[in-house]
Design brief:
disordered N terminus; alpha+beta; single chain; globular
């Protein structure tokens, strides 16, 4: 089972950043400055309960240096799950002793809360 996930992961890592049928991708990954590492994090909430957290850390050349995944049996709101995925990535970076990091997430409220006070209409 793990080997099937690894195959899919490798295919995604080598997939083009844009659609091959002429459509434009919504966004493309941008590398961090030299000497800085980028943490991309995401979370998924499952219908049957629980959630999955993931983080990938890359260097300025786009090389994947490390990553982490964690499955929780407890369900959380999507925003809390995304914040937990961000924390997972930061914990990995801290343990690896990475000096400077940039964190990317697709959850606008979590990104906003990490920079400022959380918006009043969120659970963060």
């Amino acid at each position: 089972m793990l080997s099937a996930y690894w195959v899919i992961f490798k295919q995604l890592m080598h997939a083009p950043a844009h659609a091959t049928d002429g459509r434009r991708a919504l966004s493309t990954w941008q590398p961090p400055p030299v000497g800085t590492y980028k943490i991309n994090c995401d979370a998924a909430c499952f219908v049957e309960g629980g959630c999955g957290l993931g983080a990938v850390i890359r260097d300025h050349m786009g090389n994947i240096l490390m990553g982490a995944v964690h499955r929780l049996s407890t369900s959380f709101t999507p925003e809390i799950s995304e914040a937990m995925a961000m924390r997972l990535g930061l914990q990995v970076a801290l343990q690896a002793g990475l000096p400077k990091v940039i964190v990317e997430s697709d959850c606008v409220n979590v990104v906003h809360a990490s920079r400022h006070q959380p918006p009043p209409d969120t659970n963060l």
